[in-house]
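Database export, one record per block. Field names are fixed; values are copied verbatim from the stored entry.
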Amino acid sequence: MKRTLEVCCGSLQSVTNAVEGGAERIELCSALSLDGLTPSMGLLKTVRTLYPALKIHVLIRPREGDFVYANEEIDVMVRDIEAALPYADGIVIGALTAEGDIDMVAMRRLMDAVQHAAPNAQPPVPVTFHRAFDACRDPFVAMEQIIELGCRRILTSGQQPRAIDGIDLLRQLRDLSDERLIIMPGGGVNPQNAHDIVCQVQTTEIHGSCSGSQGVTSSDVVRQVLAVI
C-alpha cells in the first residue's frame, strides 16, 4: 500500500528541503507559528516554477485565531482561492460557526469558488478541510457535513494536541467514512510515531511539518518519516 506524506511548508527553504527529502506533496502556507496562514502569491508562483511536478495544496486562512469568519473575510478567502488555483493542485480550507459546527453557508461559498476557478479540472480540484475540524463539537456530524460538501479529505489530530493521542477517534472516523473521503492524521507527527499512526488508523496519508532547527522543514526528517510509513 502506497502511503503519502504531505509536508507542511511555511517558507521556500522548507519547500526545497521537503523536495530534497523525497516529498511529493506539500501544504503551502505562511506563519507556521500562528498555525498557518495563506501564503503569498509570490511564494506560490515561485514554488510552482521551481518544482513543476510537485503537488501543491494551498492553505487559505486569512488570519490567526478562530475559524468563525465574517462575510467580508469569506470574500477575501474566495479571492485568494481564485488567485491560487492557476498554480495549485489543491485547496485547504475550513470554517465554523460560533457554536462549533461546520459553517455550511461559508463552506459552500468556498467550495463554489474552487469549482468556478477551475471548472474544467478532471478530476475536480481536491479540497481538504483543515484542523478547524478539531474544534468541532460533534466530529461525527461534522464529518458527514464535510462529505456532503464534497471535500476530499479531513486533516485532523483526532481532537487531541497530537495525532498519536487521537488514535481512537481517528480510527472511528476512518471506519465511518467508509472511503467516502480520506482521514489524514496530522499534529505532532515525527519519525518515532508516524508508523504507529498510519498503521493504527489504517490510513493512506499523513501530514507533518518534519521540522528541524528553527522550525524549518528538514530533508532528513522527511526521509525518516517516508522510510517508516
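Remark 1: The beta strands are 4-9, 25-28, 55-59, 90-93, 127-129, 153-156, 182-185, 205-208.
Remark 2: The mean pLDDT is 97.
End of record.
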